[in-house]
Design brief:
Layout (H helix, E strand, L loop, with lengths): L3 E6 L4 H16 L3 E3 L11 E6 L1 H11 L6 E5 L9 E2 L3 H10 L3 E5 L2 E6 L6 E6 L2 E6 L6 E7 L2 E8 L1 E5 L7 H4 L12 E6 L9 E3 L5 E5 L7 E5 L3 E5 L4 E6 L4 E5 L5 H9 L14
Parallel strand pairs: 1-2, 1-3, 3-4, 4-5
Antiparallel strand pairs: 6-19, 7-8, 7-18, 9-12, 9-16, 10-11, 10-15, 12-13, 13-14, 15-18, 16-17
Helix pairs in contact: 1-3
């Protein structure tokens, strides 16, 4: 049976298409079969090679969900925390993929359930980075009640609440003022956005907890629930949103063993000169 590798690129970037052609040629030269998303159902996929930014990786995770396929990202975007390699490393990544010279890292996901106020409708989805509960109308706040594990925590008006994984701590949650959490930490984050409250600090909770957001019936605006900024669900006043650890992790192929600290410094271009006199993170 041939070793099939999904090659997925950003749909609207010429440089991504050129890189995908190069990857496909390298895979063929090494005895692997490159496939496109239209060929996914024709057999098992050993690996998915993604050329683009984090958005392209998130889309590929949707396509391969339920298959257990490891993803490796080649960054053609900007910060690109999910993409481990840069485009200059294409040939090395293909070579090591052909040799099976990588480890697979499982990243926590989130499962979300929305109970609508009529009690007859329940919507469900999932996320790698975050589930964000946001106001549907720009000019109005939403009134929410927060809870953890069936216990009330706080009530306030806000622009929204971000519920994130450690992987998502460097995405929307980071922009909202949340902490950076190392990927190997098993935890979930709750980060209020522009809350009108004295106590509205980011929270880090255990991986077996349930984070809850209720859009209060008195809220003058409905909410929209975004999953990874890609999939939306409605949450009208009276809706109850439960977020728990996802039943299915996302698998990332790791080709380097460098610490997350170095990736953080590199992605954000953090000033580290003077560290132990060398200017390097070790």
């Amino acid at each position: 049976m041939s070793r099939r590798v999904l090659v997925q690129s950003h749909p609207n970037r010429p440089e991504a298409h050129r890189a995908a052609d190069l990857v496909a040629a390298e895979l063929l030269a090494r005895g692997l079969q490159p496939v496109t998303e239209t060929e996914l159902d024709e057999g098992p996929i050993e690996l998915a090679m993604v050329l683009g930014g984090d958005g392209t990786i998130l889309r590929t995770a949707e396509l391969t969900r339920g298959r257990g396929t490891p993803l490796v990202g080649i960054n053609l975007g900007h910060v690109g925390f999910l993409a481990e390699h840069e485009v200059e490393q294409l040939e090395e990544v293909v070579r090591r993929a052909a040799e099976g010279d990588y480890v697979v890292e499982e990243r926590m996901t989130l499962d979300v359930q929305i109970q609508h106020p009529d009690k007859d409708r329940v919507d469900r989805s999932w996320a790698i980075n975050e589930v964000s509960v946001e106001k549907a109308e720009r000019e109005r706040m939403i009134e929410v009640a927060l809870g953890i594990d069936d216990r009330a925590l706080s009530t306030f008006g806000c622009d929204g609440v971000v519920l994130a994984t450690p992987t998502g701590s460097t995405a929307y949650a980071f922009s909202a003022g949340g902490p950076v959490v190392w990927p190997d930490v098993e935890a979930m984050l709750m980060v209020p956005i522009s809350a009108h409250a004295l106590f509205a600090r980011p929270l880090v909770v255990g991986p077996n907890s349930r984070m809850e957001v209720e859009v209060l019936a008195r809220s003058l605006s409905s909410a929209v629930v975004w999953c990874d900024g890609r999939r939306t669900l409605d949450a009208p006043p009276g809706a109850h949103i439960d977020v728990v650890r996802g039943s299915e992790p996302v698998r990332l192929a790791r080709f380097s063993s460098g610490p997350f600290t170095a990736r953080l410094v590199g992605k954000f271009d953090l000033p580290v000169y003077g560290w132990r006199g060398s200017g390097q993170v070790s």
